[in-house]
Amino acid sequence: MAKLTIAQALNQALESALTEDPAVIILGEDVGRDGGVFRITDGLFEKFGGERVIDTPLAESGIVGTSVGLAMAGMKPVAEIQFFGFIYETMDQIASQAARVRFRSLGRYSAPMVIRAPFGGGVKAPEIHSDSLEALFTHTPGIKVVTPSNPYDAKGLLLSAIDDPDPVLFLEPMRLYRAFRDEVPEEAYRIPLGKANVVREGTDVTLIGWGPSMALILAAADELVAQYDVSPEVIDLRTLTPLDEETLVASVQKTQRAVVVHEAVRTSGFGGELAAVIQEKAFLYLEAPVLRVTGYDTPYPMTMFEDLWLPDTSQVITAALASVRF
Amino acid sequence: MAKLTIAQALNQALESALTEDPAVIILGEDVGRDGGVFRITDGLFEKFGGERVIDTPLAESGIVGTSVGLAMAGMKPVAEIQFFGFIYETMDQIASQAARVRFRSLGRYSAPMVIRAPFGGGVKAPEIHSDSLEALFTHTPGIKVVTPSNPYDAKGLLLSAIDDPDPVLFLEPMRLYRAFRDEVPEEAYRIPLGKANVVREGTDVTLIGWGPSMALILAAADELVAQYDVSPEVIDLRTLTPLDEETLVASVQKTQRAVVVHEAVRTSGFGGELAAVIQEKAFLYLEAPVLRVTGYDTPYPMTMFEDLWLPDTSQVITAALASVRF
Amino acid sequence: MTDGMEMFPLIQRLDEEGKLVGELGFLSVADLRETYETMRFLRTFDERAWNLQRQGVIGTYAPFKGQEAAQMGAVAALNESDWLVPTYRDWAASYLRGVPMEHGLFFSKGHPSLGDIPTGKQVLPAQVVIAAQTLHGVGVAWATKLRHEAAATVVTFGDGATSQGDFHEAMNFASVLEVPLIFFCENNQWAISVPLSQQMHAETIAQRSIAYGIEGYRVDGNDYIAVANLMKELTERVRAGEGPFLVEAVTYRLGAHTTADDPGKYRASEEEDLWIRRDPLLRLETWLRGEGQLSDDDVVAIDAESERKVEEILANFHEALDISPLVLFDNVYAEVPTGLASQRAQFEARVKEMGA
Amino acid sequence: MTDGMEMFPLIQRLDEEGKLVGELGFLSVADLRETYETMRFLRTFDERAWNLQRQGVIGTYAPFKGQEAAQMGAVAALNESDWLVPTYRDWAASYLRGVPMEHGLFFSKGHPSLGDIPTGKQVLPAQVVIAAQTLHGVGVAWATKLRHEAAATVVTFGDGATSQGDFHEAMNFASVLEVPLIFFCENNQWAISVPLSQQMHAETIAQRSIAYGIEGYRVDGNDYIAVANLMKELTERVRAGEGPFLVEAVTYRLGAHTTADDPGKYRASEEEDLWIRRDPLLRLETWLRGEGQLSDDDVVAIDAESERKVEEILANFHEALDISPLVLFDNVYAEVPTGLASQRAQFEARVKEMGA
Ligand SMILES: Cc1ncc(C[n+]2csc(CCOP(=O)(O)OP(=O)(O)O)c2C)c(N)n1
Ligand SMILES: Cc1ncc(C[n+]2csc(CCOP(=O)(O)OP(=O)(O)O)c2C)c(N)n1
Ligand SMILES: [Mg+2]
Ligand SMILES: [Mg+2]
Which residues pair with C248 in a beta bridge? Predict the structure, then answer.
């Protein structure tokens, strides 16, 4: 099996979707000849031509809004938003339009489309490029929010997102695009949406994350075992909404402790929702409050200081120990 | 003292701000001759003229974006967004622009501006008009989110919002605009932002809400006392962010129980954040999980069914009793 | 500076006095007689809907009175494989494309079926968010182009909508992608209380086409013959790959913005009077009478038939009110997710409890 | 259809060969000699910034090489009471308005001072979100109008930015409100990898002015004399209340989009070669040499002085790196809220712990 980066795995998924289904098209800024600023669509313009892989004008609402029309009329657009920070431009078209097509038409129409965007910090990108805004979309019924944390998941989840009959916001951890490689099967496999992944079983504390935070969590988990004799259970949500409450709650009922990790600012980050659900559904099991390791409540920092600002492994360890020793 | 509705109290606040400070201007769709679709700006165009009370073209990003420029150049714009559901159109200008002016310029510039919008359901308005999206903005450092629940607060909070050196999103409970009257002083008084209001002291359970939900909570509180011998403490947040954690946590440490009520859909509503904060800061005091009474995780319903969908007093009572009897 | 009125002269075939000043084009006298009947029915419906709101039967309603010729003309040349992408005011246009008229009432009632377009009818649900649908129109037209379908798409919107960023992005995308789309602006002179002169500085909406390097047209929107013929020509041209186009139909909202609005606050009655004389229905009537195609008795008969049809619509509407609120949960996603399913169960219990 | 090139002929005063084909206007030969020195310094800086990124001293940098005449001309006629609202690429324009050149490095470094414009200088922080600043420009100009200040505001943006909804809303607001604003488009032919012909269907950006009923101009953006004189005239006219205006400065991005970009992937070197011959710096140099205003020795001296200034900037830059990360918490709100204050304390402890 080939060892691929997340970037390569995504490229393979897109190529296979374009090959499998003539209704699939890719659109966005610089996704054509340039292959995308992160090269995720590299080679696809050359292979599938300018009718299937389209460089659009520079307008995000336009990209998502035309995708809604395309999808309602039977196509399966896969739109790229160059950086997730620019998603604000599209929020009406996502939340009031794409997410409501099925609801508004009592199921007569649907909007099977994927909006891909690189997200998260750590690559010293300019202002507005690194914001983690996933929580905003978890507040929008009608769309699914999906994010992979490794090459294997990247391919399998993206193919499922493209198959999905409803709009999917697919967030790609920018920092991990080329950070490491995994074995990725050649064939077009699917990983189901809406199911969290118990990456590592444990008994003492449940560590919960998604996307870019998984790298920190996994490193922290190793150290917790090795240095502190703590046995963490690690959950990668994969799909944020609709949330796989069962897996989450079952784990915390077992470990009786939970730590959520995300890069987004703390207040009203998705960690808040998870803490709320867990304390409600596992109240009598909890031996410690659900703790959150998150960004601070400031705008995403100027990148000179982003490494100081971003959650790191040591903070995850500290929180896990605080939970265990509560 | 005059007895005024929320609509009248807001109108009075705007009139007094326009009178006090020549830098204040009002802009938005139909805020001029028409006096706003809810008549909140009634008479102001006639009194202050078309230079201070401006009917803009139909473009929300334009309204907020020009307000950012106005504010950076020394004016104090008070912008109206006709219905909060259209706020999505402005999210880049709010979250990436207004909220970051001070941060981006290291304090050299600021954006003292107010964005007013009617919000919440219950008036059988068309699709997209009734959505409660306040949680989205609580995830944005740099702006303040304020919402009154009665005429007295409406005037005092709006005047503070206009005074504030930072951008304020000011949400007006549409359903309560003319629902009841309060004594409202003639003079221009202020109610501080960032402070929650303990509306009613109690010992058994803390009921937390804001804006339109306060009406339900207060009715439920009366019934809890009268029918169930439960003594609820009632908190009206007034300002959602920056959150007055002290007041909230102190109350729950006392009552050991909390119920949060909001109209917004449950998942990632601001109730999630509050539950997360409370369980973290008052873990050892809690006798029951923090419960949430909220909208369901669907798009805001077609209005034929909105009364069935919206939280009601009986749900608040049920949750309070569930908490007390947990 | 460009003189928009000069560059885009108003296209007219039937003038304000009901005098034919151009050809009938692809329309026969019989067509026009039928159009008159339909228009008169639509007027009857529109006025009844207004009253239904006043009686509390439905909620906020946006009347199209005065804009019938524009809306009917916009879709006059469409066929089954074409698409219509309308707004909250376009019930006349949608009706002609096969959307039952009760949908207009569903919309105002907040009935879950408001966007449940009959299968096979290529009409999108009415759009509330100003200009959002212009982008959907581009997407729909693009889809038909990608599938080589030779279909035309018509997207309708108001004058106020042209101020929105989405309108601009749609015009730009459409022109760059050369999609088979007609942007059809119902310039009814007002966006709630804001007159066109405060909505934009340009003289005409048609001249906005220049910004995108496409053709624009300004047509008398109260002249069905002119609008229909222009749309006949343009739909054929877009199907042949010559689109997109921008059409400004100059018309007037004779009524209030919606049942919640009071135009007395912001516009002069002289202006209203002026446009009452330009009424598209009156104009067609005058001409048909002049041609000997319409008598007083005919009008009485048409009104009776219109009333009958409206009663039928109302019956359908009332019958449709018996719909389970649980549908709210069934079309959020293709399948109800587990968490939502348990909320659905709670809702069901609540509904039972409340006897709703 | 409108021929944009014909309606908006390219305004030129100094042609590609460095031959004067128009008047100097308000500029003296001495002005132009000084402009050349500044332009050469700016070129030196720009190339050094590129190298600094390659050396890892700064992060992503967007070079302005090739656009110097456009940027310098855009602000040539501004005075202290005027405003500039720039983008991430407009360091040449900002510099002339009093923003120290190290801000360009701060921006690329992600240094908290990147938008800390010196007091008294009416320049907004560089904008990253495409076209967002066009609306800020409208607001700033509107503020000066409301205060009767007779000030001009210039907002700069790229060709790609004209596709954004915000650009349209800004043009429309500005024209309706008749604010003293000049929309200055640096049409450098590319938006990253997308050429103008795929960005829009219209021939020129200037013709977009027609959509808003305002005047538009198309000027050779590599001809400082033409740009500066046009802006002289237009700034005076906007101060007199005749604005807004749209200016399309036709130029070219000689370098990559940013240090993260490889133009080899998407554009032909012949095109680049063509524009290298149109280099604004070269053009001015040829003319000055022809006029006997510039010798080889002069150029050597200018280069030496440019290097010295760049070193000075670098020294300032390095000195400024010693800034506390705690500033991140101090400018979120005018006052640090309680909850944020406790986060600030945690951050402070973390910073100490990490020895940062
Ligand atoms: C994005 C958005 N902003 C505001 C509104 C509120 N609103 C509804 S109709 C309307 C005026 C629309 O004017 P126009 O486009 O001319 O259409 P008309 O109603 O005249 O047919 C406004 C402001 C809305 N529905 N959507
Ligand atoms: C809203 C938004 N979308 C996308 C980007 C990413 N981006 C940065 S520069 C650029 C191209 C801009 O082209 P143009 O406006 O012509 O300016 P130029 O870079 O050529 O000066 C893009 C797509 C962005 N910064 N903001
Ligand atoms: Mg209108
Ligand atoms: Mg460019």
Answer: C185, C218
